[in-house]
Amino acid sequence: MKHHFLDQYSNLRSPVHALDPRVKIITLFSFLFFVIFTPITQAPKFALYGALVFSTILISRIPLEFVLKRSLVIVPFVLLVAIGLPFLGSGDAAGSYNISIFRITHSALLIFLNVLVKSWLCVLSMIVLTATTPFPKLLNGFQRLKLPKIFIMILSFMYRFIFIFIDEFGRMHRARDARAPSLGRIQHIKIVGCMIGTLFVRSYERGERVYTAMRSRGFNGEIKLTRELEFKRFDAFFFASFFSLLILILVVV
Amino acid sequence: MKAIEIKNLHYTYPDGTTALRGVNLDVERGGSICLIGPNGSGKSTLLLHLNGILQPQRGHVRVLGMNLRKKTKEVRSKVGLVFQNPDDQMFMPTVFEDVAFGPVNMGLSEWEVKRKVKKVLKAVGLERFENRSSHHLSYGEKKRVAIATVLSMEPEILVLDEPTLALDPWLKKEFMKLLKELKRTHTMVMAGHDLDLMKLCDRTYLFNDGKIVKEVGKKSELFK
Questions:
Q1: Which residues in B lie closer than 8 A to residue A157 (C-beta atoms)?
Q2: The complex's ipTM?
Q3: Of B91, B113, B135, Cβ closest to residue A213
Q4: Chain B closest CA to A54's CA: distance in Å?
């Protein structure tokens, strides 16, 4: 079965897709850096950061709807911050925002806005990176940027086997439904618990077999990976222009 | 010098299951043999001894005249072990990286690795599959890539566990053709319970309860 939660749009053709993953990663991190260190009071700057992200999304041809939907992942975190708001900060009460005994202050609202805007922009930009880069290439980029090999290896195993686990879980699910079509909630939870246990044991055994296969092919504990990338003129151009736009926003606005 | 020499091999798993009880087997260089036997008879355990994944507890195994215990690394580069389930054999994100895994571990240069991968993929009939994701392949393609991952190490001996398991008759026919092709250039050891494998091999042995019971010539002899 094909699964699409990774690599759904990463094989489209666009200038953003064609970029060297290293360039994309570095651009992303410099963008994050700029966003995080801009004081929240300077609203125009954030508008421009947003414009920058959205124009990248447009150029990459990834459906806007997809990006926006994915960016909803920040909602739980932002809510968590929002719960704490009434207890945060001191200073002037923000007039009509008061809720019964809780006083919401201007500074607390600013903190909220700070978290909301910055995390949203960061998540949006990360989605652009991951949606425009096939996962193996992304790993390749990180590897060339000297992320520890062990992380790369773990991530690449995850990428290789997560779909197999999902399929396996799907099959177990079906087998259960076939034999026990109507179950109470408690029984249901019990069975899911057993299924998770079984899945764990199976993956443990698979891990053993995979390790055997690796040893058979000369693996002796040292991870060597080969992946090639080529840095093109367009990559340099993209990074230079993106970075100078960021500087421009910082200095001029 | 024989390709494989096994004398009085015993093996018991840590949980107490005795898998091998005195196996004796010789395979000539360039020869091909087939071990036919029921599930759980110890065939896979025997195959794991052929490249030193398991070490003999009693008896000895020599591969191309080399003692397994002393020359594990050399033996592993000479014996290509293809597992039953291709998903166990392929653990890298793309086909290229998987096929390249062996050669890279052998310390070959980047250029040589690339050349090998290309050559081997062509040999198994999967040209231009380098950048495909492993989990997007069909079962038949995975089986082929699994063989390619081993061929890229240029082994002299190919060891295949249940090579035709779970293949439909059409895929199996194709796959047998590939095995026949590989037989011309490699010493082969196959294990399974697919009686059609007998056609591919010079010799067939009936394997049961951790031992080689007898050599069989024809299918009909198996059931006497």
A1: 91
A2: 0.81
A3: B91
A4: 29
> B16: left (phi > 0), else alpha (psi -120 to 50), else beta?
left
CB contact under 8 A, A157 and B91: yes
Report d(CA B131, CA B174) in Å as an integer.
Answer: 23
Instruction: Tell me the sheet residues that pair with B190.
Output: B34, B160
CA-CA distance, B181 to B204, in Å (whole number)? 19
What sign does the dihedral B77-B83-B86-B90 (CA atoms) show? negative
| Contact present, B130 and B96 (Cβ < 8 Å) | yes
How do strand B203-208 and strand B32-36 relate by DSSP bridges?
A: parallel
Contact A213 B85 (CB under 8 A): no
How far B200 CA lies from chain A's nearest CA (Å)? 25
For chain A, 253 residues long, give each residue's pLDDT as a single digit of tens. 667 777 888 888 888 998 999 999 999 999 999 999 999 888 899 999 999 999 999 999 999 999 999 999 888 888 888 887 767 656 665 555 566 666 677 777 888 888 889 999 999 999 999 999 988 889 889 988 988 888 888 898 888 888 888 888 888 888 888 887 777 778 888 888 888 999 999 999 999 999 988 888 888 777 776 667 778 899 999 999 999 999 999 888 7
Give percent helix, percent strand, percent coil of chain A, each to the nearest 5: 75, 0, 25
Q: How far is CA A146 from CA A19, A80, A140, A246, in A?
A: 19, 34, 10, 25
A vs B, Cβ pairs < 8 A, gives 80
What does the domain layout of chain A look like in residue ranges? 15-134+231-252, 148-216
Helix (H), strand (E) at residue B159: strand B157-161
* Cβ pair B76:A213 closer than 8 A: no
Neighbours of A1 (CB within 10 A): 7
Selection from B12, B24, B35, B13 nearest residue B203 by Cα: B35
Burial class (CB in 10 A: 0-12, 13-18, 19+), B15: exposed
Cβ-based interface (< 8 Å): residues of A facing B? 2, 7, 134-136, 139, 156-157, 159-161, 163-164, 206, 209-210, 212-220, 224-228
Domains present along chain B, CATH in parentheses:
4-222 (3.40.50.300)
